[in-house]
Design brief:
Layout: E1 7-10, H1 23-33, H2 38-42, H3 47-54, E2 55-60, E3 66-73, E4 75-79, E5 88-91, E6 98-99, E7 115-119, E8 122-125, H4 129-133, E9 143-147, H5 150-159, E10 161-166, E11 171-179, H6 187-193, H7 204-213, H8 215-222, E12 229-234, E13 256-258, E14 269-278, E15 284-293, E16 303-310, H9 312-319, E17 322-332
Parallel strand pairs: 3-16, 4-10, 13-15
Antiparallel strand pairs: 1-2, 2-17, 3-17, 4-9, 5-9, 6-7, 7-8, 10-11, 11-12, 13-16, 14-15, 14-17
Helix pairs in contact: 7-8
Length: 334
């Protein structure tokens, strides 16, 4: 198909870093987006030739420079039963939550979704984070699991999914099941605005450290983000390789990209060049990725969120990723 009007076609030979990338890894991620063709992709012996033959590359020509951030899947501890150690509920979607539009799998920051509940006096906004923390949903059997750390749970709300290691030795992967429709507020931005942390040094670790110094002030800050996420358990045997993105398929670390789907359709290959970011081999990040997720903070044709994987190391990498970038979108040839 023809490229979008804001794009210019480029030769693959002119894409800086294209010849050094492992396109086979991108092809495996693409197979998740196109399961009907997975067997055909598996038989491809030369992934680079496949992409060069089947697609045309387009440089996105926009006034706004490209920019990437990162996200990850947090790891929590938990239990299926409440106990003194595991006393903090992880809630499933309430049956009285009504949203104005459909929600995607990872719409944790989707401010276009508004939520409300019916009362005798008519519809009212759904409970905010502080109200839910104070027990607004207690006694309704909505607890999917229980965890032991409110800060780790908060960051799972921010990311929209999580892996929970249970006290019985098993593990559970939780995915986005809805949100209360309240606006998302960045607590990192709030700390910067209040002069609590330096904008040049702030990252996820520094924010967590600030929250842990004083539980009362930490809760007050987290409750400034009124947005609250509800979760559902994924079948473990069917989905152990990663959390699901908005496309409904497992995400691949370093190869799955969250995009603005109004500019880049889900399932689209995108060659992302990030000069200020190094890959695991300490080379500039120049990698073919697949658009498999969304987020309302991801807006515009050259705005992306790189999925880095699961756990603390991935979280550290994601929390420090804020870089200028260049996107080249691959479009199927006619």
């Amino acid at each position: 198909m023809a490229g979008p009007s804001y794009a210019k076609q480029k030769r693959f030979a002119d894409l800086d870093g294209w010849s050094e990338d492992d396109q086979a890894a991108a092809l495996r991620a693409l197979a998740n987006s196109m399961p009907r063709h997975a067997d055909a992709f598996a038989s491809e012996t030369d992934a680079r030739t496949f992409f060069e033959t089947a697609f045309d590359a387009f440089a996105l020509d926009t006034e706004t420079p490209g920019f990437v951030t990162g996200y990850y899947e947090p790891v929590l501890r938990g239990s299926r039963t409440r106990s003194p150690q595991y006393s903090i509920p992880i809630h499933g979607r309430p049956d009285d939550l009504i949203t104005t539009i459909g929600e995607t799998e990872r719409a944790a920051h989707n401010e276009h979704v508004t939520g409300f509940r019916e009362t005798a006096d008519g519809p009212v906004p759904y409970y905010a984070r502080a109200e839910i923390d104070d027990g607004a949903l207690a006694g309704r059997g909505l607890e999917v699991l229980f965890t032991d750390d409110p800060i780790d749970l908060f960051f799972m709300h921010v990311q929209g999914s999580g892996l929970v290691h249970l006290d019985d030795g098993t593990s559970v992967r939780l995915t986005f099941a809805g949100k209360n429709g309240r606006p998302y507020t960045s607590i990192a931005r709030a700390l910067i605005d209040r002069g609590e942390l330096d904008p040049d040094d702030i990252d996820m670790d520094s924010v967590k450290a600030w929250l842990r110094v004083d539980a009362t002030r930490g809760r007050e800050l987290m409750e400034r983000n009124e947005s609250y996420i509800f979760f559902a358990e994924l079948p473990w045997a069917k989905d152990t390789i990663g959390p699901r993105g908005a496309e409904g398929v497992p995400l691949t670390p370093g190869r799955s990209l969250a995009v603005d789907p109004s500019f880049i359709p889900l399932g689209t290959p995108v060659f992302v060049t990030v000069p200020g970011l190094e890959d695991t081999n300490r080379r500039p990040f120049r990698r073919l990725m697949i658009a498999q997720d969304v987020g309302s903070a991801i807006r515009g044709p050259q705005r992306g969120d790189i999925f880095f994987g699961t756990g603390e190391a991935a979280g550290m990498q994601a929390g420090r990723t804020r870089h200028a970038a260049q996107f080249h979108v691959l479009m199927r040839k006619r």
